[in-house]
Design a protein that fits this description.
By secondary structure, the chain is an alpha+beta fold. 37% of the residues lie in helices and 16% in strands. It has helices at 31-44, 50-56, and strands at 6-8, 15-17, 23-25.
Amino acid sequence: MPDGIRLDNVHGYPHIHWNNGEVEEIIYDDYDIVLEIIRGHIDRGKDINLTDLRKEL
């Protein structure tokens, strides 16, 4: 997992913690799908575009 991005479901629903302290619910219940999306962003370039990643999740 890239620095500054953390996934969990401690509160009963899947959500992502961003590097700026924000917490946002994600639309996928399956973490494997989320990890594949994040890997795809990593594979496309050196840096992850958080704006594009947020739109996808």
